[in-house]
Task: structure prediction
Amino acid sequence: MLSVTCAIIIRDGLVLAVQRGKKMKMPGKWEFPGGKIEANESEENCLIREIKEELHLNIKIAEKLPEVIHHYPDFTIKLIPFLATIESGELYLSEHQAYQWLSKDKLLDLDWAEADEPVIREILKRNNAKWNFLDK
Result:
């Protein structure tokens, strides 16, 4: 099983979605940014490192969400999501081909990687007052 972290990055009440590049598995699918946990690396440190490498952003982790285990035809993933905000940096894509800032009600409009779909459902259940608090 592949253990992967992902960040639900919130800014101005919007959520960051990134589109997988043509050379990645599942090209064109949308996902929350993140990556594989390296040996002896904590989930939080992995996520901070991956977001810095992939998006050139420094993030602050706010809360861990429920993990998702998803079975694709050729591999199984354990997706470990975290709510986060941007501390500094300018968004620049290193691996992905596109990004969008979306309101919660627009998240389902994209063609998401299947493992990310339960994370979206979790986000949609959340109280907007708590959601907006993260962004202050």
User: Anything to note?
Assistant: The radius of gyration is 14 Å. The mean pLDDT is 92.
